[in-house]
Amino acid sequence: MIQVKDNVYWLGLRDWDLRRFHGHELSTHRGSSYNTYLIRDEKNILVDTVWNPFQEEFLEIIEKEVGFSNIHGIIINHMEPDHGGSLGALMEHLPKDTPIYCSPKGVESIKGHFHKEWNLIPVKTGDKINIGKSDITFVEMTMIHWPDSLAGFVSPANVLLSNDAFGEHYCSASIFEDESDPCEVNQEALKYFANILAPLTPLIRKKLAEIKALNLPVEVIAPSHGVIWRKDPMRIVEKYAQWAEDYHEGYVTIAYDTMYNSTKKMAEAIAKGIESQGVKCKIYNSSITDISDLLTEMFCSKGIILGSCTVNNGYLRSMAAVLSEIKGHKFKKKIGAAFGSSGWSNAAPEKLYDGLKDSGIDVVLEPIGVKFVPTPEDIEKCIKYGEEFARKVKESK
Question: pLDDT tens string for the chain (397 positions)?
């Protein structure tokens, strides 16, 4: 058990081996942590649990560090199994009437997971419980990123237990941000936002304004994954505000798939044209690139260009995943284009063009295609295509 601040303690678990999350949807190259917290006072309140596979180790920690008989209440900020999964195992050691505080949607979620008649107490924004010298004020975090999401502010310790907001899937030698590699922390926080929270940016903007209006004197932000922010913790809140405002860093990402490198040659020529106009560009083969990392790059991009050779009157399968992710993440104020090669039917560029438009990307150029292996003339056309796209990037707001 590690003291976070005053009477707030961390007694979570680090999962150094985790490499995939949400099934196999999200890559977690640096593992993750499941951050459970204990608020010690006249009443001891446990905040969240850990993922089901770690429940036995979790129970041992609780019994050793706290003692089951010394837990007087539980807060479940979010019932996704990586947070609330061990609640059932924990409740086998506690009285059935132990109060479990959750959001109104959390009541439905907890019942849906465990089918038990526990003492579930719904709380909403502004509700407060007193546990002695400390108060816990609740803030609903609806759809950040589940309907049941909740946060709690502990005073006078001034610790915000933010659940999924402001976290990362990240294991560090320290649980504190100021004792961790700042580059890794920023990279993982951005990746977490881009892959999990990006579709929710309109809600995030409203929620950040709502939290600000509460005038909470936040001194520590303790999320449910990753590191705890205790040195100028509002920096991560400011980052969220920045990322939620149709974020980009001005560069172009080209993602392509290829059979015999004709489409690759086109991608490289388009990139050459883009860079000749002073716009930075990155190129990724989508069939061998981690999709979560690629999505993060696209989130940071102003322009997205997709390319594929034609197969079965469509595009290669990795492009289907890329388009699905772009559409699902609802990117705003990004421009796009499409290209590809073919042997007889030049369907891929047209379908990628349509897919980008359907995903909400502002497609600013007609698709470009070549037959078989690009000629020097084809390569020159691709360079010109990149030059024109770069001009569109500069013009776009």
Answer: 999 999 999 999 999 999 999 988 999 999 999 999 999 999 999 999 999 999 999 999 999 999 999 999 999 999 999 999 999 999 999 999 999 999 999 999 999 999 999 999 999 999 999 999 999 999 999 888 889 999 999 999 999 999 999 999 999 999 999 999 999 999 999 999 999 999 999 999 999 998 888 889 999 999 999 999 999 999 999 999 999 999 999 999 999 999 999 999 999 999 999 999 999 999 999 999 999 999 999 999 999 999 999 999 999 999 999 999 999 999 999 999 999 999 888 899 999 999 999 999 999 999 999 999 999 999 999 999 999 999 999 999 7
Q: Which fold would CATH assign to domain 2-243?
A: Metallo-beta-lactamase; Chain A (3.60.15)
| Structure tokens, 82 | 């990586």
Token couple for 86: 């061990």
Q: What is the spatial distance between Cα 264 and Cα 222, in angstroms, rounded to a whole number?
A: 44
Catalytic residues, by residue number, are 22, 78, 80, 82, 145, 164, 192, 225
CA atoms within 13 A on the CB side of 197: 31
Inter-residue contact 244 to 208 (CB < 8 Å): yes
Q: Provide the whole-model pTM.
A: 0.94
Q: Tell me: domain 252-395, CATH 3.40.50.1760, correct? A: no
Domain with CATH 3.60.15.10 in the chain: 2-243
- Where in the chain are all domains bearing CATH 3.40.50.360? 252-395
